[in-house]
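Example for tutorial group B:
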């Protein structure tokens, strides 16, 4: 029996055990997935509950029919199970979720005409900083918008417990494709979304003692126990040196990376279309992902600043390998430390290939619980609370609003904007995404204001780009040569 068949058998068995089902208001209750539990965990630890908010706008250089757009939004909501999720906490404090099949949605409208773009974006940023508080409520808000620059579209706010960035992009694409299918004969009505419940049942079956989970745990335990990583600071080894002084342990290898304040800001650097294409062409030529290239660039920066060949960075894995997973919505991201030990005498290309091979291993085991990973690592190395080895988290978001069906409409221009929620539990989190208007890259740095300054980020981005382009132009240079040249 394959592991997928085992999943389905467990799911079928659970469905037959009707007397074991929990219900709420006639709806079946489901436990939280591992990804959701992680969000609940850091929401509880963070004083600002808006830390779970994700806000974005998608606007188009077209005069929209807002009645048709409202109908299209309604249909997109009806097709998307995760938008109907409601969370419920029982008397024992355990959290559950259910699908409110008869859910309805408020669709607001806001005309920003007459305001500046800065004022408009400030208002939407304010919307993004209002948390979803309470039980059994809708975990999203949507507003149809008209912008001062003539673009029109939607602003969408969701709670991270029901959606991640890929879910949001998929949902927004669905709205636009439904709208275009109603307005333009040459655009087909989009295919149905996948079942959210089907995917979380598979996740829950995996957690319920499956052989796959045992294999994944063995992989990560071996990885953790092989040797202890070392912390590399954004500006050098100062924080690790401070940890060694204050702890009285001259051999300490972990350090505190965050500040005592979760207030954050979002700082974005824009890489133009032509240099972005050079990076993408390199990845195609050498059969590596852009994520591998970005990881190589970041780790080389930290290697340069700290003098360590041993570098760890937190990486996120979307866990959306299948079409059903891609279109099921929900939050599926798992985050793990990604450690590489690459000496300076290896070439840039050899380093990327090593990262690629290690990432492929991670992908095969990525269903494992990240919280269990961190708990085991803390136990093995007796880490004091708050001590970590990773100075930064990296996410690359390959999905964009560009779509083959929409390309039939010609050169209609799109814009997206992500709005900060004002809080983060991490010192700095880099999300790299493609801009829909030109397919260039946006480097979005969300950072704790007291932990990392914008000048620190400007310095990081400057050297990151120098490393990346020196590497793709001359991939046979050694890492040490690149470090000295940049």
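The residue assignment follows.
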């Amino acid at each position: 029996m394959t592991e997928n068949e085992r999943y389905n058998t467990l799911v079928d068995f659970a469905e037959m055990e009707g007397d074991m089902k929990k219900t709420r208001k006639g709806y079946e209750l489901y436990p939280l997935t591992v990804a959701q539990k992680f969000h609940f965990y850091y929401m509880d630890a963070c004083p600002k509950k808006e830390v779970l908010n994700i806000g974005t706008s998608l606007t188009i250089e077209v005069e929209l029919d807002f009645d048709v757009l409202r109908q299209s939004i309604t249909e997109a909501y009806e097709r998307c199970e995760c938008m109907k999720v409601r969370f419920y906490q029982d008397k024992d404090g355990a959290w559950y979720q259910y699908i409110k099949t008869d859910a309805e949605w408020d669709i607001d409208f806001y005309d920003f005409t007459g305001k500046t773009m800065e004022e408009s974006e400030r208002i939407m940023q304010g919307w993004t900083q209002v948390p979803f508080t309470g039980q059994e409520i809708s975990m999203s808000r949507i507003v149809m918008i008209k912008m001062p620059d003539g673009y029109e579209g939607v602003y969408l706010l969701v709670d991270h417990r029901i959606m991640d960035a890929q879910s949001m992009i998929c949902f927004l694409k669905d709205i636009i494709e439904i709208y275009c299918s109603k307005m333009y004969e040459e655009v087909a009505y989009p295919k149905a979304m996948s079942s959210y419940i089907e995917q979380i049942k598979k996740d829950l079956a995996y957690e319920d003692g499956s052989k796959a989970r045992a294999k994944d745990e063995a992989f990560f335990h071996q990885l953790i126990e092989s040797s202890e990583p070392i912390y590399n600071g954004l500006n050098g080894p100062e924080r690790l040196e401070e940890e060694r002084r204050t702890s009285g342990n001259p051999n300490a290898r972990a350090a505190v990376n965050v500040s005592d304040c979760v207030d954050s800001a979002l700082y974005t650097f824009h890489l133009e279309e032509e240099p972005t294409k050079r990076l993408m062409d390199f990845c195609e030529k050498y059969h590596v992902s852009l994520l591998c290239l970005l990881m190589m660039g970041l780790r080389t920066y930290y290697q340069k600043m700290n003098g360590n060949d041993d570098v760890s960075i937190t990486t996120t894995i979307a866990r959306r390998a299948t079409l059903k997973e891609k279109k099921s919505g929900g939050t599926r991201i798992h985050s793990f430390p990604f450690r590489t030990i690459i000496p300076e005498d290896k070439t840039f290309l050899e380093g990327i290939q090593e990262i690629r091979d290690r990432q492929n291993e991670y992908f095969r085991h990525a269903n494992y619980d990240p919280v269990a990973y961190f708990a085991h690592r803390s136990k093995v190395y007796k880490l004091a609370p708050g001590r970590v080895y990773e100075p930064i988290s990296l996410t690359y978001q390959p999905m964009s609003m560009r779509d083959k069906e929409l390309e039939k409409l010609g050169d209609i221009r799109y814009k997206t904007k992500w709005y900060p929620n004002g809080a983060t539990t991490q010192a700095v989190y880099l999300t790299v995404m493609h801009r829909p208007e030109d397919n260039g890259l946006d480097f979005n740095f969300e950072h704790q204001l007291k932990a990392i300054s914008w000048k620190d980020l400007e310095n990081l981005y400057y050297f990151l780009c120098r490393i990346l382009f020196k590497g793709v132009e001359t991939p046979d240079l050694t890492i040490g040569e690149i470090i000295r040249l940049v």
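The radius of gyration is 23 Å. Compare this with the pattern of hydrophobic and polar residues in the output above.
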